[in-house]
Write a structure and sequence with these properties.
The protein is an all-beta fold. Helices cover 0% and strands 34% of the residues.
Length: 80
């Protein structure tokens, strides 16, 4: 069992907010299916959809998505 969640990596970090809405995550077990996630963009940053352990913890997979300035073009520390 895991959670699939939509979040924003905030830039700059000082603008981070901790409020999370239920519509940002869905519990998944196995197989395939349909789901809808909502991601309110309350601050500047990079949006992503990621997998997390059901009981909390660090992500174990995902993908950054977006358009314009909200696209993560390079991972932190990666050279041009």
């Amino acid at each position: 069992m895991a959670a699939l969640s939509a979040y924003t990596t905030v830039a700059p970090a000082k603008d981070a907010r901790s409020t999370t809405l239920r519509v940002q995550s869905v519990r998944i077990e196995q197989g395939d299916g349909e789901f809808t996630l909502f991601l309110p963009m309350l601050c500047r940053g990079w949006s992503h959809v990621s997998f997390y352990p059901h009981q909390r913890g660090s992500s174990f997979g995902g993908n950054y998505v977006g358009t314009g300035d909200s696209v993560l073009e390079r991972w932190w520390g990666e050279r041009e």
